[in-house]
# Entry
Amino acid sequence: MALGLKKMPYRMIWVAEDDEETPMQLVGKKITPIIEFPGEPAFPESTDIINRVDGDARFGPPLLKPKTERPELDAWLKGLSTPMRNLGRPRYIRSAVLPEFRSSSARQRFVTTHPLPDPVTGETLSKPDWAALPQERRDEVYDHYWADSGHQKRLLNDALARMPAGLIASDRHLSGHGLSWDDIVFFSRLRGITLIKDVKLPPALDAYLSTMSEMTDVPLLTQMAM
# Structure
């Protein structure tokens, strides 16, 4: 997002979900994203990357204002989180065009490291406990939520409809003080909703996502929605 906002040219290399070797060679651990400036060592962590891009005078003046405390925003996002997760994760591994999930081993790695709630109890296991389940059981849970898409979409649409009036200040910035870290966090979290077909986005949210996608040069997932 920061590179797009600054109109900086860059080359993107996708790292497959199951590729541990590449990030280990670059930064010593399994992590993405990673950035490498010419003549400098590579380094990871989204926050550090954005701070560098936005704060380095060679790339122009800073654009991002500080993050604000917005409890009404946090509460609304919390209401979206469960149906978004239950709908999104089964779709990531079924998309034929998301490059990090093109191989079966990459898709299986994602399932192994991203728990979903038990369909009966609603309990979400810790990552170690989830990973310890048999692969067949993890696949069953993912298949359940794929088959349960209709119900999960109704839950998501109900939560979206409860978006407070005025929550989004402008289609060019989330909060009233202008483009800020609020936008980095919010757009990153809500972009994935565009992978879910037949979701009823409130007009203000729809306009915001479309405009922010253009501003940051980060495409939405609408064309591959399922």
In short: The radius of gyration is 19 Å. The chain is about 50% helix and 0% strand. The mean pLDDT is 96. The first helix runs from residue 2 to 5.
